[in-house]
Design a protein that fits this description.
- The strands form 7 sheets. Strands 1, 2, 3, 5, 7 and 11 form a 6-stranded mixed β-sheet that branches.
- This protein has 10 helices and 27 strands.
- The protein is an alpha/beta fold.
- Helix 5 packs across helix 9, helix 8 packs across helix 10 and helix 9 packs across helix 10.
- A hairpin with a 2-residue loop joins strand 24 and strand 25.
- The longest helix is centred in the N-terminal third of the chain and has 17 residues.
- The N and C termini lie far apart (84 Å).
- 45% of the residues are buried.
- The N terminus and C terminus are likely disordered.
- The structure holds copper (II) ion (CU).
- Copper (II) ion binds next to loops.
Length: 496
Amino acid sequence: MNNFKLKVLVSMVSVALAFSACGGKVNEQSSSSSANQASSAASRLPVIEAVLTQAPNVPPPVARNYAAKIVVNMETQEKVMRMADGVDYMFWTFGGQVPGQFMRIREGDEVEFNLSNSPDSKMPHNIDLHAVTGPGGGAASSFTSPGHTSTFSFKALNPGLYVYHCATAPVGMHIGNGMYGLILVEPKAGLPKVDREYYVMQGDFYTKGKYGEAGLQPFDMEKAIKEQPDYVVFNGSVGALNGDKAITANVGETVRLFVGNGGPNLVSSFHVIGEIFDKVYVEGGDLVNKNVQTTLVPAGGAAITEFKVDVPGTFIMVDHSIFRAFNKGALGMLKVSGPEDKIIYSGKQADKVYLPEGSAAQSIRNPAAAVATKALTKDEQIALGQNLYESNCLACHQAKGEGIPHAFPPLAKSDYLNADHNRSVDILLHGRSGPITVNGETYDSVMPAIALNNDQIANVLTYVLNSFDNKGGQITSAQVEKRRKLPPPSVNDIHM
Ligand code: CU
């Protein structure tokens, strides 16, 4: 076997090995030994089939120090998938998920792109890669009817993190239905080594029904033109990066986020609550900014953020246009495990709540995850209630229901909660202000009325009653409906 063939084989084997190791932990391809400065014609470049990954996973770093011919095989598919609990949507996709599959190549590589459109598709699709130098970024050359495959080639002249998207008319609708993803063109010298890499991509969605309205929701062109999305999400759906789907890291590790924004309309103010980006590759290019709190990610653009995680906890990723985060879904989680460092973060909390808007109970309308869903069994109620808890209650009452001393009462092992279920229903329906005593401690804060429907209140309370070492029990939708019809209790009625 000559040296050239051997190298091709090594590359392909290492790609295959690396492919089996996803999940954010960076697993470098083994480098082939000889340094080949090949700049030969496409026909003479070693051929490598591209590793494509679904978000939040990223293909392993390129370990080559020579150009290759990369073969990309990607299929467009139109699929009904979950937008939020109880809400479905007909997504148009690259590779069956939103965002589309992540591609990772090296500056100077030549790419043969084979775009197949599933025979089940109703629409033609194509691909415009912002990494392409050429008319339409490949769009016209890749226009593909259902059941066909188009092939075109390009050379990656510029390193950077680039968006790709469908550019078939009506373009806004194809992008608005989820047809976008990221392609990373690594610089010839590669990117600095980090411990973990993840793929996070924002998108805005426009549905006939308002946020949380159950059922299969069609695309709403009028809202899209007005740029008034019902959903703004990371990785294609509400909660795609929450709970057990959160991305993870260990204390002391370095994390790199490849952040994209498919739009179609909104610009993202990307922020990780409780972290500072040590480095941002601004707009996905060469310019590195340091010590950044929030970075702009344009529609049809990207950014690379890097940071070391120093303390454990759940770090919330948001679009800091903050109603999008808490009311439209643009919220994900990075869970960091490891030992505390009380010097870096003490855990100390404020003594009392600052209430500049007055002490009257406020009302929250259209809260996050306000999803109309009929739960049948207690277990189903608990499962649905957990999602509602994470998007509506967790910020104050905390992940394990422990509350925040002197500010937000605990829901864990709560004598107040377990003593009177109807009172708890009333608090969710009407809000609550004024002092209460929970487990021997007095709290004087404000709980806003949460505009959840009867099912949702029943589900979230059933979840809480059966979690955090509480005494169990079940709240039914009918019970909530009954309480809803009663006049709101006066503050005196609900004092302990
Ligand atoms: Cu399309």
